[in-house]
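DATA SHEET
Item: assembly model
Revision: 1
Owner: S.N.
Input lines:
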Amino acid sequence: MIEDRVLVWRFNRGDSAALCRIYEKYRACLLKVAAALLNDRSGIEDVLHDVFVDFAQTVGRFQLKGSLKGYLSICVANRARDRNRVMQRRSSASLDEATPRQTDFGGPEHIAMGRETAARLDAAMAGLPDEQREIIVLHLQSKLPFREVAELRCISINTAMSRYRYGLEKIRSALDGELEA
Amino acid sequence: MSDYRDTERLLQTYLEHMPAPQGTETNARALADALTAMQRRKQQTVPSGREIWRTIMKSTTARLAAAVIVVAVLFVTFFGKLTQPAWALDQAIKAMQKYKACNVTVIDSSGLMFDCWAKAEPSGELSDEVVLKGTNGAVVWVKDNKTYYYDPQKNTVEMDDAKTAGFSPWLGPELFELVSKADDARTVFGKDPTTGRGRVVMTGSLTTAFGPTSWSIEFDEGTKLPISYTQWDNTRRSGTPKCSIVKITYFEDLPDSFFAVDIPQNIPYTAKPIVLPEANIALLANPDHGIRTEGLTHDQAARHILEQVYKASMAGDLQMMRKLCPLTATWNEELLRAVIVPDEEGKRLAEVLEIGMVCREGTSRLGPFVVVPTRLKTKDGRVWDEKQIVQFRQIEGKESCVVYGPYGIPSEVKQ
């Protein structure tokens, strides 16, 4: 946290090395957030690119209120949501051209987990409303506490926890349904 | 899949192992575009002097930090053992002797950050020139034994006729010797979990002329250099720290250009009021301390008590010192002796060359106080200028005075 405050301070003074350090520090985590939130994973790097370019333009006036990781994760979530909407409109316009979710760049861990399970979870996550999916990803993957997610989203902590619980129940139902079938 | 927790665990595994692209080319593009965007933005937003001024004036957080110093212990997460301060400080001496300049990043209690450059006097015992630049535009600088506080919100520069910002002693072995002698001094050994390097954290507290103070200083066990510092304005190391030094970089020397100050022209300079910390005032009110002053002017009384103080110092009379300077009554004998009668023979007071006339006056809750300049010679032949604050009071109908303590850091007279 202290390191982030120092980085933000240096960044605001126009220190390129600070921006590089922030990028290196959070790149991997943010890519995973984008991967978990996007229906079309070909856009992961585009999302990260846009988030960092936008962030870079705040130089000199960026004010860190929570954690830097939380702030950047929310930026990724916003971008991912916008992109999903655009892609959804496109696929509605032409169902034949709908893009299936791509999971081809899976690593050994992903293979170890089981492609089938991963594919079912992909589908279950894709079926969640955006706000529930975001809370799950930000809490479980970015390790943000509910309080911070609630503050970043300007909702109450109870709402954040409810969304998380409903999302989890839907995924469980979806997985149970598949098992029963 | 019937259990809620099972679902949560499965999802956690799924998300933690979420595949993500590794393409270094796109990676480089994103970073390059971000850097370009940053540079472009900086060029677009370089404001005129007038705009900078307006921005600063609007800042609600614009204010000054008077004192520096502190060390954060955040990077030390576990400790091997807890001991009395038996750590071999002499090992630090060689490592630190040559570093007579430093750059530190300071965060004050409000979260405001300062970039600080400091240089020691040639003796390497005290700080000399210092510049602190705050992210809100505030600037504090020490030059020619004067300290200037530029406050962009008030559009003024306040001046202390002494070195009231800086390090005394310098970030070196003497500091750690003194720190280790504080009443509740503790030295804790541990390891930095990130690098595996040994860390030593020293904590303690002391009532100084700046008020009650406690600290936690972390330094590298290998190089023996302090790497961070946290200071509280209470003796319990509790609450929000007064300031934290989160980064220290050492230099053997720094060019003068690092101490250049750039503030708007035509700003009024005014004398900075001297404020004695409220927490110290009660320590000055004991009727058994000090000397009677009936029939004496402030000049005469101040000269008289300072003569007695320096006489006690030269004689190593700690009891008299405590009577005349009540703040030292809160110090333990070892610490007081280390300050008054240093182990190094040459650093001991040898002669009082001059006690000057009152040069400044002020008022505390107890009554008026004065500042008196003095010139002293130590046994090694060096000559020092320092200023002492003498507090006057009327207790139980009797007039008396005590020596409060130094006004600023002493400075060596270049001969």
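QC remark: Chain B touches chain A at residues 1-2, 4, 7-8, 10-23, 26-27, 29-31, 33-35, 37-39, 41-42, 45, 72, 74, 105, 107, 111, 113, 135, 244, 246-247 (CB under 8 Å).
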